[in-house]
């Protein structure tokens, strides 16, 4: 198969990638690692690739984004190949399904419906999804919220779904009050209850993010980046003196942190 014209065609597009995947999974001549994989073992890589796409976008690394999108697309092809081997569905079924879904969920583009704002489109999208769930005879409001989402993302999706049927705080102040309540419960909890109470606090924090129209995962990633950036400033300042954080103390590092924070603020204002 080394001389397969499609595999060696740089313009082969998605069919070429699918052929490469099939070759990797060939039981006789494929890659031993790829042959051993299944849906469960590949799923974590799929999630990781999605995060790497988001990271490339956040860093405005457009050349890197091109590569990360390819990696993510390969994950879809990987799952489709395994599904075809199991007699479940094919890559063509996947592509047909997503194309049909996009046409059905955008009647204002591919039909006669009129939608004049992104907010109205979001409402219409959710209405169409609700009809699809009803057609599949799903009984519960939360039935098809994927369990594989990142925790904060899934929390927001669960809360949005519940809010659509009226189970929600109408005012942000009520959410903030609940955060204070959950924080108090956490500080007073017995050691064996801290895990649960901490989860409750995070869940309400996700609810606050939803009310503020903030993506909590994106906000946390930004906070992680900020912490990394400022801690590296501490390391650089100490290195200039021939020292490291291990040679410093909290008071000094805290002062260097404040200096890095002030420098960032001045740069933004400048």
TrEMBL record:
Q: Which reaction does it catalyse?
A: ATP + H2O = AMP + diphosphate + H(+)
Keywords (A to Z) from UniProt = Hydrolase
What Pfam family is a match for this entry? PRA-PH
Q: Which residues form the signal peptide?
A: none
The protein's Enzyme Commission number: 3.6.1.8
Its BP terms in the Gene Ontology are: dATP catabolic process; dGTP catabolic process; dTTP catabolic process; dUTP catabolic process; response to stress; TTP catabolic process; UTP catabolic process
Tell me the InterPro entries matching this sequence: MazG-like_dom (IPR004518), NTP-PPase_MazG-like_C (IPR048011), NTP-PPase_MazG-like_N (IPR048015), NTP_PyrPHydrolase_MazG (IPR011551), PRib-ATP_PPHydrolase-like (IPR021130)
Q: NTP pyrophosphohydrolase MazG-like domain: which residues?
A: 37-110
Is rRNA processing given among the entry's keywords? Answer: no
For this protein, the record's SUPFAM superfamilies field holds: all-alpha NTP pyrophosphatases
Q: Which GO terms describe its molecular function?
A: ATP diphosphatase activity
Q: Does the keyword GTP-binding apply?
A: no
What is the top-level taxon of the source organism? Answer: Bacteria
Query: Which protein family is it in?
Result: Belongs to the nucleoside triphosphate pyrophosphohydrolase family.
Official protein name in the record: Nucleoside triphosphate pyrophosphohydrolase
What species was this sequence derived from?
Answer: Pararhodobacter marinus
């Amino acid at each position: 198969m080394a001389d397969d014209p499609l595999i060696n065609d740089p313009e082969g597009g998605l069919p070429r990638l699918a052929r490469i995947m099939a070759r990797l999974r060939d039981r006789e001549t494929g890659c031993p690692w790829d042959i051993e994989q299944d849906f469960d073992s590949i799923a974590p890589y799929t999630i990781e690739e999605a995060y790497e796409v988001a990271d490339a976008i956040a860093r405005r690394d457009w050349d890197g984004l091109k590569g990360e999108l390819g990696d993510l697309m390969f994950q879809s092809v990987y799952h489709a190949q395994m599904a075809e081997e199991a007699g479940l569905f094919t890559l063509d079924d996947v592509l047909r399904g997503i194309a049909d879904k996009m046409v059905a969920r955008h009647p204002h583009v591919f039909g006669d419906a009129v939608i004049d704002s992104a907010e109205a489109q979001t409402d219409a999208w959710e209405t169409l999804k609700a009809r699809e769930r009803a057609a599949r005879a799903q009984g519960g409001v939360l039935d098809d919220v994927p369990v594989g989402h990142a925790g904060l993302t899934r929390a927001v999706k669960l809360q949005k779904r519940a809010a659509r049927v009226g189970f929600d705080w109408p005012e942000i102040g009520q959410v903030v009050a609940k955060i204070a309540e959950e924080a108090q419960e956490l500080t007073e909890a017995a050691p064996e209850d801290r895990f649960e109470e901490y989860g409750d606090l995070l869940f309400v924090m996700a609810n606050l993010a939803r009310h503020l129209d903030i993506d909590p995962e994106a906000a946390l990633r930004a906070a992680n980046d900020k912490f990394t950036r400022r801690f590296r400033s501490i390391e650089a300042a100490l290195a200039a003196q021939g020292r490291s954080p291990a040679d410093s103390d909290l008071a000094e590092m805290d002062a260097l942190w404040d200096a890095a924070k002030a420098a960032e603020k001045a740069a933004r204002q400048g």
